[in-house]
Amino acid sequence: MGKPIDDLRTRVRGAVVAPQDDGYDEARRVNNAMIDRRPAAVVRCANAGDVMAVVDFARDQGLDLAVRGGGHSVPGFGTCDDGVVADLSGMRSVRVDPRGRTARADGGATWGDFNAATHAFGLATTGGIISTTGVGGLTLGGGIGYLARGLGLSCDNLLSADVVTADGQLIVASEEENQDLFWALRGGSGNFGAVTSFEFALSPVKDIYGGPILYELADAAAVLRSFRDIIAEAPEQLGGFPAFQIAPPLPFIPEDRHGQPFALIVACWSGPVEEGERALQPFHDIAPVVAEHVGPMPYPALNSAFDALVPPGLQHYWKANFVTELTDEAIEAHLRFAPRLPAVNSTVHIYPVDGACHRVAPDATAYAYRDASFATVIAGMWPDPADNEANTAWVRDYYEATAPHSEEGGYINFMAEDDQNRIRANYKGNYDRLVEVKRTYDPGNLFHLNQNIRP
Known about the structure:
This protein is an alpha+beta fold. The chain contains 14 helices and 19 strands. The protein has helices at 2-11, 24-28, 48-61, 111-119, 135-141, 148-151, 179-185, 220-233, 276-284, 299-303, 328-337, 388-402, 423-427, 431-441, and strands at 16-17, 41-44, 65-68, 84-87, 94-97, 102-106, 123-124, 158-164, 170-174, 194-201, 203-204, 207-215, 238-246, 261-269, 289-292, 295-298, 315-323, 347-352, 374-382. Strands 12, 13, 14, 15, 16, 17, 18 and 19 form an 8-stranded antiparallel sheet that branches. The longest helix is centred in the C-terminal third of the chain and has 15 residues, at 388-402. It is globular, with a radius of gyration of 21 Å. The model has no long low-confidence stretch (mean pLDDT 97).
């Protein structure tokens, strides 16, 4: 592989890091420490031209191609063994047009990058829960976040994308150009090309009122039932989610409760800040509050509030389902497993995906579950690989208990590496059309390191 790699070095602006090069172990590392792969080269792309060169190189050499944005892919799709990695993480600029209320983000930008740029103008779009998450991966899988009930998914706010396709060409996908590709990108994940730039519509969101509210586990059933009922009737500016979490050592939590599991609601009111206290009052009426850190804050502060619980280098194993109705039976299943959270990093979130998400037709984008009310994720995360077997079993058992009360498919961004058998269910009636788009833009399945839609 030596000479081809040397030739690749002459064709790109960014650094090419091969196994013999300094920094190789750092370059091949992704967030999930369970993933330990050794690519033939990691190309730290400097621009779209570099991405085009890497795509050509992988195709012509018959190598696996991994495309890495934020590197948060739980199955480790941002790396590979013996192939080539197009690492976009150096391409992070975000340009805001405050008059047009749009922003264009490079393919390696994180939501922290994006929020920092847009917040200066009092603007935002739906962008996940952890600010170190890549804009690209989140958006291509759909894009659930605090603002989804009011603004829709991240992909619903996507206006256009610059895409390097399998033939090495850079094309634009939008409602005006390559409409079939634009449709597929909004939920179809990384199956259709390497996206080097995303253009989003922005909305006025600057400061929000919210934060975490902790309740005793004994009140967890009331918390879930009440949240289900409250959110169904709440104004769309009310976002957030119920969750289960071991209390980290934070100053607003009583010290003698650190390390204990709790039910909680993480609230986000994005309407007028002065209305926030009243908007959150129903959550305070559910049950006695053990601790809370609620008040006015910049939206980016809430969007990054849990970053410290998800540092690089944890072991990750996740499972997920969509839920049309959060039934009492489903709640009972949660109560059997959630109290056994294995580590302070592990969590269970039940995201509401109604409101604006429901006003998009199920066949208008690749993201098909427009009738789902919630997206559940059982996010197993822990530091010690010695716990992998036991903690992975907890995630699987939990998932099996909730699956009978859920839809067949789940949110593509929460799928594990062993979930490929669910790919058709995840896209419901959109799957066959996705296959046709795949055949048009990637007939050789060069972009197959993903939840793969086979041509």
